[in-house]
Write a structure and sequence with these properties.
alpha/beta, Rossmann fold, seven-stranded mixed β-sheet, two-stranded antiparallel sheet, binds S-adenosylmethionine
Length: about 190
């Protein structure tokens, strides 16, 4: 069984981030096997798990104990050992320092900007996932001189049916998930 096969069987709770969006984070940030990352919030742990496969350590924060427990169980089932869970609110505090990356898949992420500034190393990155473009606008308006917004992207994927008779996009599918904002601490 592969990681992706196991991921399909995880316990579900809050909305997960899809692999197509996670791929954009992994490909557009400078994380590697030596990196330390904070992921807020854990949710079902899908983004946490994907990050943990590639970096040294992931600190995964969720302010809701019941969701943190779902994520913890999923990470255990996936056999990942480099994740530390924290039942804490990223708006109140991020304990770590000199982080390479912070990912935020939470409502009102701009409320964590001050704590992200303290926790990231210089040149460290912030990747924020937001379902609505109005939230992207609000986030960017609230970013201060400590960060430089580098990129705002939406990843759109269309699944196709390809067999002996057909070669066309599927009639239905996931039309929208969200936008990703990438910012760098300067
Ligand atoms: C959409 S889910 C995250 C899904 C996750 N990225 C995944 O792929 O499974 C959002 C989570 O953030 C948590 N959350 C919301 N605000 C938070 C905050 N201020 N601090 C920590 N966690 C928070 C929620 O409890 C929820 O579990």
């Amino acid at each position: 069984m592969s990681f992706i096969d196991d991921l399909r069987k995880i316990k579900r709770g809050p909305a997960i981030m899809l692999q197509k969006d996670i791929g954009v984070i992994l490909a557009n940030t400078c994380i590697d096997k030596d990196s330390t990352v904070v992921d807020g919030g854990s949710g079902c742990g899908v983004l946490t798990a994907n990050l943990a496969r590639f970096v040294k350590k992931v600190y995964s924060y969720d302010n809701r104990k019941e969701f943190l427990e779902i994520a913890r169980e999923n990470i255990k089932k996936l056999g990942l050992k480099n994740v530390v869970f924290k039942n804490k609110d990223v708006f109140e505090k991020i304990d770590e320092r000199k982080l390479d990356l912070i990912t935020l898949d939470i409502k009102d992420p701009w409320k964590a900007l001050g704590n992200c500034k303290k926790a990231l190393k210089k040149g460290g990155e912030l990747a924020v996932f937001l379902p609505n473009i109005t939230q992207v606008h609000e986030f960017i308006n609230k970013v201060d001189e400590n960060f430089k917004v580098e990129n705002v992207v939406e990843d759109i994927q269309r699944r196709w049916i390809v067999d002996e008779r057909r070669a066309r996009p599927e009639n239905i599918g996931i039309l929208h998930t969200g936008f990703l904002v990438f910012a760098k601490k300067i």
